[in-house]
Amino acid sequence: MAADEPGLRIDTAHSFAGFSVRAAWVKRIDGRFAHIEGVVRPEAGQAWLLEVRVASGSVLMGRESHEDWARSADFFDAARHPWIEFRAAGLSKTLLQEGGAIEGVLSLRGISRPVRFELLPTECARPGVECPVQARGEVDRSQFGMTARRVFVSDKVKLSFDIRLREPAA
User: Fold this and answer.
1) Measuring CA to CA, which of 44, 92, 152, 166 is 20 to 30 A from 122?
2) Which residues form the Lipid/polyisoprenoid-binding YceI-like domain (predicted)?
């Protein structure tokens, strides 16, 4: 994503991506990423294209042992796959304001798969600029080659994005 691309850039200081998994089928383990970047840019007509990149090695979980595990080849494999990427086309302002399903492609550990997230309704005239755009979804980690510790860690991974946008400097 070049700095001179048209559109709105993700405000990295005010946006975040997170995840949660169940361990031992009881305890929920949460994490978030310290680095998220991307752009929302116009397509033909009134549609928008969203591209999000999350640095997989920037995971924060509150415990160093959990963070080391999440970065390892057992989970995100950050050394070999430093970016988690999501791309969705055809977004409308109405969808961003009212919420609803958003379909796109998630690339994780070098594997790209179609996924569906749910956009939450916003309460502002300019979603992303005046208030965050929030998306929630769930993926099966085994579909992305994350098969280690299946006895102790659930296959379902819940993902969340809270995205703020910044307008280009005049």
Assistant:
1) 44
2) 7-166
Residues with Cβ within 8 Å of 74's Cβ and at least 6 positions away in sequence, in order, are: 146, 148, 149
* Nearest of 126, 132, 139, 124 to residue 161 by alpha carbon: 132
Report the amino acid identity of residue 58. Answer: S
Residues 39-87 have pLDDT tens digits of 999 888 888 999 999 999 999 999 999 999 999 999 999 999 999 999 9
160: left (phi over 0), alpha (psi -120 to 50) or beta: beta
Question: How much is the pTM?
Answer: 0.88
- Per-residue confidence band for 25, with pLDDT thresholds at 50, 70 and 90: low
106-121 burial, b at 16+ Cβ within 10 Å, e below that, comes to bbbbeeeeebebebbe
pLDDT in tens, 92-113: 988 989 999 999 999 999 999 9
- Facing residues of 97 across strands? none
Contact of 29 with 23, CB cutoff 8 Å: yes
Query: Domains (ranges, CATH) in the chain?
Result: 8-166 (2.40.128.110)
